[in-house]
Structure formats: C-alpha cells, structure tokens
Amino acid sequence: MKPRILIVDDEELVRDFISEVLLRMGYAPLAAPTGEKAIEYLEKSEYDLVITDYKMPGLSGDDVLKKAIELWPDCRVIMLTAFGTIDHAVEAMKIGAQDYITKPISPDHLEVVVNKALEYKSLKIENRNLKNEIGDKYSFENIVGKSAAIREVFELIRRASPSDSTILINGESGTGKELVAKAIHYNSARADAPFIKMNCAALPEGLIESELFGHEKGAFTGAIRSTRGRFEMADGGTLLLDEISEIPPPLQAKLLRVLQEKEFERIGSGQTIRVDVRVIATSNRDLKDEVAAGDFRDDLFYRLNVIPIDLPPLRQRLEDIPLLADYFLNIYCQKMGIPTKTLNEKAGQMLLSYLWPGNVRELENMIERAVVISKNQELKVSDFPPEIAAGIPMLGKTSMDVGMSIGEAEKILILKTLKAHGGNKSRAADVLGISSRTLRNKLHEYGLSGND
C-alpha cells in the first residue's frame, strides 16, 4: 500500500504546492487547513507522514506533532517553518519531528526530505520486526525438551531473566549454553538493547584485554585508531563471556573490578568509563576445579556464580532425543523446501543408543546430514555415519570394572572396537579374533544389528 500523507497548512497555495509535488512522486495526500482539522483526521485513521506548518491560527504545528506521535508512534512528522523560526524547528525535532523544511519550499528538497522520512519509518518497522523475530527465536519454547533436567533449566531461566544478576552457565560443549544466554537476554527488560558475545577461547591472550575494554589510538603497536571494547558495545544490554575459564589470571582482577564497580578504562587512557551491563558467563570446565588448581580467582568465581545454571549433557536427558530429532528434521526439511522426513523405528532406537559426546550440536549435525543424503522420506540407520550405529548403548556401564560380568565386559569391548574402526564389522572381527558371523550375532543380541 502507498504511504498515507497528511499536509497541514493554513495557506491554500502552500497546501496546493506540496500536494502537487507529492502527486508527482506517486502519492495521494490529504490536506487540512487547520491544526484542529488535522487532529480530526489523525483520530480517524493512521498516517505514515505528516507535513505541518509551525505557525497557524488555533492549534500549532507542535500540537499536531504531539498528537500524531501520541496516536501513531511510527508516524513521521516534517515541520514547515519560516527562516526566523529555525531554532523552534530544531526544538520540535527533539520532541519527535523527523525533519524540518524552511519556506520558501524547494520541490527537490521536499522530495529528498519526504523520501528520507518514509525510508526511516520503513527501516524502523523492519528493525522492530527483526527484533521480534529474534525474540521469538530465542523464546523458552525453542529450547526443546520435556525431561526433568531441562524443565529445571526452564524454571531457572524464567526466574533469572527479569533480574540483572550475573549468571554462570555450566555445561559440556554443544549443550546449548549460548541459546540459554540469548533466551535470558531476549526475555529480560534489556531485550531491545545490545546482546554482545565474546568467545574468550578464540582470542590470543594479548588481545583479550583490548577486546574487553577497548583501546586508544597509539596505545600499542598496531593501534591505529581508538576502539570500543565489548563492555562499551554492550552498555545497557547483555555481555556474554563464552568460555570464561580462558580469561588469563592477570585480567581476572580487572574483570572483577568491572563487575563490582561498573567502570573501567580503555588501554592507553586514564579516563574512567561507566557502563550498565549484565554479564552472562559460560564454561565447559568446572570452575570450582579451576579455582582449586589456582587457575581461576575464587572472588571472581563467586561474583560470576550468583545464579548458576547447569545444562545437562544429552546422555542424561534421553527422553528429549526424539523431540530434538523431530525438531531438527522440521527445521532442515523446511530450509530445503522438502516434505518433512521421519525416522524409522530402528533409526530412532539407534539415536537413543549413542553416547552423543558432542551433545545437542552433534545430534543437529547428524540430522542435517541425514536429511541431505537420504533419498527416502523415511530416514534409516544407513543414512547415519557408521560410528553412530556402532555407538555404545547408554544403558549400562561403558567401562570395564572389577565385579563386572564377562558378558558385560565382552559387550563393551566389542562395541568399543567396532567404534574405533568406524563401524567396519570385518575389520573389528579380525581385531577381536572372532568371525564376522559371530560379531553380527553379538550385535543382534545387543539390539544393534545395523539393519534398517
């Protein structure tokens, strides 16, 4: 639909002139001779743009501006003003006007200002829709699972999100720590503010301080311009410090100060910068062990560990695997524009029998791979890598211990050997010193025959 534009001016010649320019631009504007009439129009329907004179008998342009923004917050307003009242037009922009035009009006300048105002409105709406889309993506409902362990995580997220408390998310790689951090941010009062991420493990030790706090031009070799750090970039929002255990000890004291005092200095500057940042940290290591080993400050650990959230590995939430598999099947089939595929019964059982050392991320990658390579509507065991099919069942022990029966030890040895050789049954049988037929019988006995 074409944008709706309202012209407000007590001079008929001005109204006609602006209307003619807008008609030439392809718009069909409505004109009002007074502020009172303009507000009457605004109360009846929404307008994308209002072009109003400042000085008019009765209600002024300021009155029209305030009412337009009150009724339609996305409406853009351009103020018409004489040369002697430019200062007032600038004040009107502080109230919410998009721009101003001085009289006499240039047709070319009018076109530029109108196009700019309408483009700004379009970008504003697009940006808001994008933020809503991101918020939907990182809602609680998109953390898939129904197990008791993941329900406990949901409850912690709901309680922690409204607060400004520091959060430490613990969990193995691939368990979804960043997804949880984003869910917390986008369900908090900071949702419209920046969400900034820093992967502490991906940066050389010498760059971490600059990335965190920024630096001034000339502070060190290669500092050719002043640069903001992640704390400045996240001001008003959330800073995710991914793999916090990788922060070197000398920087841990500086980080602790920022968390406590909410202030820091850029490298090479003596000027103190204050920020309002909520910090969420993640770690795939047990920071208590790092503290005990002397590699992590205990006071920093306690400052980060205000609200701990422990993400369980996938092997501890078996009932979530079918839900996650279906979720990823839907996602990747939609991305590829194909009907949603399903898992046959044996493929589903196979997923439940694998240890998933890479957790949810590994499961997602395996589902994506199967969707791509399979020519069938129903995914089979053969659509997955052989090491998945040869995975050690999660039911029972995975290492040989004193007191274990010979049958249990034999099962573990066979499955580990098979996995070590990429699922190649002939090679595994040779290493084990048994026939291929005996190996197939054993796998059948374990419910891992490898058949579709």
Outline the structure in words:
The chain contains 19 helices and 16 strands. It has 452 residues and is of the alpha/beta class. It folds into 4 domains: 5-133, Rossmann fold; 148-312, Rossmann fold; 314-384, Helicase, Ruva Protein, domain 3; 400-452, Arc Repressor Mutant, subunit A. The strands form 5 sheets. The protein has a 5-stranded parallel sheet with strand order 2-1-3-4-5, sandwiched between helices. A 5-stranded parallel sheet has the order 7-10-13-6-14. Helix 10 (249-261) packs across helix 12 (298-304) and helix 17 packs across helix 18 (425-432). The model has no long low-confidence stretch (mean pLDDT 86).
- CATH H-tier superfamily of the largest domain: P-loop containing nucleotide triphosphate hydrolases
Q: Looking at the structure, what is the overall shape?
A: elongated
Strands in their spatial order, largest beta sheet = 2-1-3-4-5
CATH 2nd-level architecture of the largest domain: 3-Layer(aba) Sandwich
Itemize the secondary structure elements and their pairings.
Layout: E1 5-8, H1 12-24, E2 30-32, H2 35-44, E3 49-53, H3 61-71, E4 76-81, H4 86-95, E5 99-102, H5 107-137, H6 148-160, E6 167-170, H7 177-186, E7 195-199, H8 205-213, E8 214-215, E9 227-228, H9 230-233, E10 238-242, H10 249-261, E11 263-265, E12 272-274, E13 278-283, H11 287-292, H12 298-304, E14 307-310, H13 321-336, E15 342-343, H14 345-353, H15 359-373, E16 378-379, H16 386-389, H17 406-420, H18 425-432, H19 436-445
Parallel strand pairs: 1-2, 1-3, 3-4, 4-5, 6-13, 6-14, 7-10, 10-13, 15-16
Antiparallel strand pairs: 8-9, 11-12
